[in-house]
Specification:
about 550 residues; 12-stranded mixed β-sheet; D-Maltodextrin-Binding Protein, domain 2
């Protein structure tokens, strides 16, 4: 997915939030019909799917929107949600056809029809918000409702094996066309008021990035089944230490993202708590803005990227900063995904190589030390980001080849500035939209959109921008080939070729991959079941 974009707890700092929590009870007595409280440091960019492509927003969307298909807790098998069935047309494999269940409704009473589904996908593409998931829909040429219960997607290529999984991503929530505008993102308060939700929960109270209260939707008919808990409150924290304090004191029931490795080690020893670990696939990496990064020409820029790749010590980042909760990533496709390789280890080794780094720069005529403005985010990716990027700065400068100007920006600003071409070299993270290697490739490598005159990838790195020196038609063809190849062995060979090419061109520098972790009070069940490779945290699984 998704991708990752993103004191005192913000909730505790406001009277409104305090009153809301008093009404719903604390974690210590949440069993008496008061529901559960889940804490997080993730921030919501937008409840409206057209305006967000981040984990904090996805957490809300997972609870309140219905999708055509979805993943049940603990599974990566596509299962009907609002759809009764979805399949490729036997006569024309560029057509993917979904038939809806009958009698579906939004919580506001409006019928949910195929027209709403088609509208939901069209508006994401038409709005093309810089923080939105439009890049995920690059394979979709068009979508239309052929009757009230049938929606037909026309795809750019036949038998696109990844497209069914796109229906489960940040691009997949179904919205009410009677309440969501076709040409702009609906603000959060308006979305809550419109109540155009058909997922397992609706939102009854909302104060953005402070408090969100969810109530079970009795009319939900989908993948997750009936919620096990009628009311769940999401409490947002500005700092991980406050989240840790509240879960340690059992003032909340579950802490999900993002506690530091040191916090987790401490909480694991705390009586009455359990640390649950599941599949993750989270990726941490550096993005290069190919237009703005240092270097007099494309060759010098490439040499600088390769020199940086030769200077990073991932093992040190893993052990010293993250205590092993993150492991070295030697590809943009993390270990564990089918088709993953270690292309960056093959190209640059698994330890810093100053001689190799210096040769890349010397051969391209780059004067050293190279000054690099490196931007990171201190809140969205967890509080250890500061320590992580201080270590990256130290490693790069230890070669004598770089001078790093390290700067940080809070996520609310960061999520607006990096797509706007503000940063030359910057931190991002990625949460998978669906468990497939393509999800770690296509969103980053999609060609320039000539019609909308914008970079096709969500990072706006300018890699593969058509009609520029960074265009890469070879990569575009490789992506097309792997997406439409039904033979697993052949597809994995193409995926390996893509990863090798990425290591050679280095538009991104993978650093670490991590698991999915949550901490729960004893007596809270269902947490581990939802920590799966789909990276969807489902309130429906939780009970106490």
């Amino acid at each position: 997915m998704k991708n990752f974009r993103r004191g005192t707890a913000l909730v505790a700092a406001t009277a409104l939030a305090g009153l809301a929590l008093a009404a719903c009870g604390s974690g210590k007595d949440s069993g008496g019909g008061a529901g559960l409280i889940v804490g997080t440091t993730d921030k919501v960019v937008s409840i409206d799917p057209a305006g967000s492509y981040d984990n904090g927003s996805l957490n809300v969307q997972t609870q309140v929107y219905q999708y055509l298909l979805n993943f049940p807790a603990g599974s990566t098998e596509l299962t009907p949600d609002a759809a009764e069935k979805c399949e490729f047309d036997a006569k024309d494999a560029t057509k993917y056809v979904c038939t809806l269940k009958s009698g579906l409704k939004f919580a506001n009473g409006n019928d949910l029809t195929a027209s709403d589904v088609a509208f939901s996908y069209k508006r994401i593409v038409d709005i093309a918000d810089p923080n939105g998931p439009a890049p995920l829909l690059g394979a979709m040429k068009s979508v239309e409702a052929t009757d009230d219960t049938t929606v037909t997607f026309t795809l750019a290529a036949p038998n696109d094996v990844t497209f069914p999984q796109i229906l489960v991503t940040s691009a997949g929530p179904i919205v009410d066309e009677d309440t969501y505008p076709a040409d702009k993102v609906l603000d959060d308060d308006a979305a809550v008021k419109a109540n155009g939700f058909s997922g397992p929960y609706t939102i009854t109270k909302y104060s953005k990035n402070q408090l969100a209260e969810f109530k079970a939707n009795p009319d939900y008919d989908g993948t997750y089944g009936k919620p096990k808990t009628d009311k769940v409150t999401m409490k947002y924290y500005a700092k991980a230490e406050n989240l840790k304090l509240d879960i340690k004191n059992k003032d909340i029931d579950v802490a999900y993202r993002s506690l530091t490795p040191t916090d987790l080690a401490d909480l694991e020893k705390t009586d009455g708590l359990k640390v649950e670990v599941g599949a993750g696939g989270e990726l941490r990496y550096i993005t290069f803005n190919l237009n703005k990064m240092p270097g007099d020409d494309a060759d010098q820029k490439l040499a600088i990227r390769k020199a940086m790749a030769s200077s990073i010590n991932r093992e040190e980042l893993s052990t010293e900063v993250y205590k092993g909760t993150y492991t070295p990533a030697y590809s943009m496709v993390p270990d564990g995904q089918a088709g993953a390789t270690e292309a960056f280890k093959d190209a640059y080794g698994d330890a810093p190589d100053k001689a190799a780094a210096e040769k890349f720069l010397t051969d391209a005529g780059v004067k050293t030390p190279v000054t690099i403005a490196l931007q990171y985010n201190p809140d969205h990716y967890g509080s250890s980001s500061a320590e992580e990027y201080a270590a990256v700065k130290r490693q790069l400068e230890a070669t004598g080849l770089f001078k790093i100007n390290l700067q940080s920006t809070e996520w609310v600003t960061y999520s607006e500035e990096y797509p706007a071409d503000t940063y030359p070299v910057f931190q991002l993270g990625w949460f998978p939209d669906f468990p497939d290697a393509d999800n770690y490739l296509s969103p980053f490598l999609t060609p320039y959109d000539t019609e909308k005159k914008k970079s096709g990838n969500f990072t706006n790195s300018h890699y593969n921008d058509e009609a520029t020196e960074f265009a890469d038609p070879t990569m575009t063809k490789l992506l097309d080939d792997e997406r439409t190849d039904g033979d697993q062995a052949s597809r994995e060979a193409t995926l390996a070729e893509i990863q090798t090419r990425l290591a050679d061109l280095v538009p991104y520098l993978p650093l670490l991959t991590g698991t999915s972790v949550a901490v729960a009070v004893d007596g809270v069940d269902g947490v581990k079941e939802t920590l799966d490779a789909s990276f969807k945290f489902r309130f429906t699984s939780l009970s106490k």
